[in-house]
Amino acid sequence: MKVIKIDKNQWTQGVDAARKSYQLFGPVKIKENYCFAPLQGTQQPDMNVVDTVLSPKSAVFPQTEKLLSATLDASKPAHHLMKRADTDYSPRAVIGIRPFDARAIDLVKLNFDTKEYRDPYWCDAHDATTFVGLAVNTPSQFDFSTSMGSGPFDEKGLDVLLVDTDSAYLAKVITEKGQAFMACAGFDQEATPDDVQKIEALKKTAEQAITTKVDTDNLKEKSLLDLHQAPFWDDVAFSCINCGTCTFVCPTCWCFDIQDETKGNDTIRFRNWDSCMSPLFTLHGSGHNPRGEKTQRVRQRFMHKLKYFLDKYDQGTMCVGCGRCVKSCPVNIDIREVCNLMNAYEPQK
Amino acid sequence: MNNPYMPYPVRIDDIEVATEDRSLKTFTFTFLNPDDEVAFDHKAGQFAMLSIPGKGEIPIGIASSPTEKGFVKFTVFRTGVVTKALHNMAVGDIMGIRGPMGNWYPWDTLKGKNVVIIGGGFAFTTLRASIVYMLDPANRANFGSIDVVYGARSPGMLLYRDELFEWEKRDDINMHITVDGCDDPDWAYNVGFVPTIVEQKAPKADEDTFAIVCGPPIMIKFTQPALQSLGYGENQIIMSLENRMKCGIGMCGRCNIGKELVCKDGPVFTLEALNKTPREY
Q1: What is the pTM of this model?
Q2: Which CATH class is domain B8-99?
Q3: Domain map (residue ranges) of chain B
Q4: Of B6, B247, B257, the CB nearest to A68
Q5: Which of A108, A169, A267, B75 is in the most buried spot, having the most CB atoms within 10 Å?
Q6: Rounded to an integer, what distance in angstroms lies between the CA atom of residue A147 and that of residue B246?
């Protein structure tokens, strides 16, 4: 694999060069918080932010997105016939995405790009995007990515992995998309073998800095029904206020709602992020609700992440250990504890 | 690229009030583009999204049989935003259909078998499609005996009444029509709840007999023991489920029961398969 050395003095210049061919997304401060957003004008990504409040999933899965549009004006040709909304899918690059977030997008792809159906909105956005990741040298106290099939230097889902060595970035060029981005930015100085060794050392240090260990090794063999009927769910859900924060900050939560909005004769079909924490999520037209109780909804979220997804795809859990839900939950519900509970659960015979 | 969110444009060709309380109407649609009709190649038991621009989409079972060509039919209960808008639409109006979606009754398994159809209330739509499909001259010889237990609150709440009474006259299908109650002295059929009539009239199980059950949760709940007392095994009881849906193609995440998605892995499940799920429906 090619490793390129980018002197930090040249970084801004390279980003500006890439800006000519790519729409850039990166971590920026919005009000008090850091989020991934399109970089405006000459705005530079803040490469020192370890965990943004929201994950960069919105680069390929916007919080609200136009799907289709139509005119309801019966005097117009093609009235009431829906057409695909005009969306810009020219090349874009997400700069500074952390490895666990790139891993998350890779997992979410399993949902949107299937044998039977391909979601054209998600897939077109994904195809258009180059993921220029940034390894985590100093993991936060909430990071447990090494337990969840990812890690601070994980390359899955990335096109380029940048490693910060103080004076320079060492860039592992992983895919052709990544190669094209580097060429566009004018980064072409090959790293020396000494530089490459630094990456390994930093990786080791970072992995060792993650002290939280979450056990997932038994989840696969546990019975789905046993876990569903386990007695701890009421305790887990007791303090939950169903605010949905965990689902919005989660890089792997992909559930969405579809709604039509009309102004005058113009109608647009949107999709919006939805949350399994809301009772409306599953409410039937009849008033019946299969997950009408809070405990059922909390259980659904953890079971989906840690058991249903695992059983369905056999690609690990649908949690990448970013720790955002742990950090943001207003009542301190902790997926690490729930995962350990599930992993250790033995039904009473 | 094929966009699974893009509805096929259709025109409403016929609207028929289906029940005496006018809460259900049967809509007949034709495709604006003949190619779309070919692409919409469904099997009895599948559903589709009815799509009204500006209002939204609803998942509804397909009531016409694949053997009926040139149109598709849906019977819709007026209950929410989209169904209310649909009930107010007129013949000639343009809207959309996405589908067909989901799996279907297991027609390969049912080949050469006796079939007992059990339905209640509005949930007779895909069962009607199935009966029309099985009675088609090209298909009838592929099945053994066909029994139908269908019940509604009152005679006027039975769907597809003309067809029901025609099927009554045939000797290649055993109809057991029932109503919960009736003050018409000329009512010539059964009075009683579906599970009771199932116990009295449905054939006893053998390995060549399968039951297809579709109805409100309370009917399903009490029909299950009735079928089990007749000897039906869990793999011989076939059920069609519904859950709230948005995408219909397995992506939006809300219709799951455990790891199964009602929209894509269902809506048809055997009781055996359902017993392996957390049964959140």
Answers
A1: 0.94
A2: mainly beta
A3: 8-99, 107-240
A4: B6
A5: A169
A6: 34
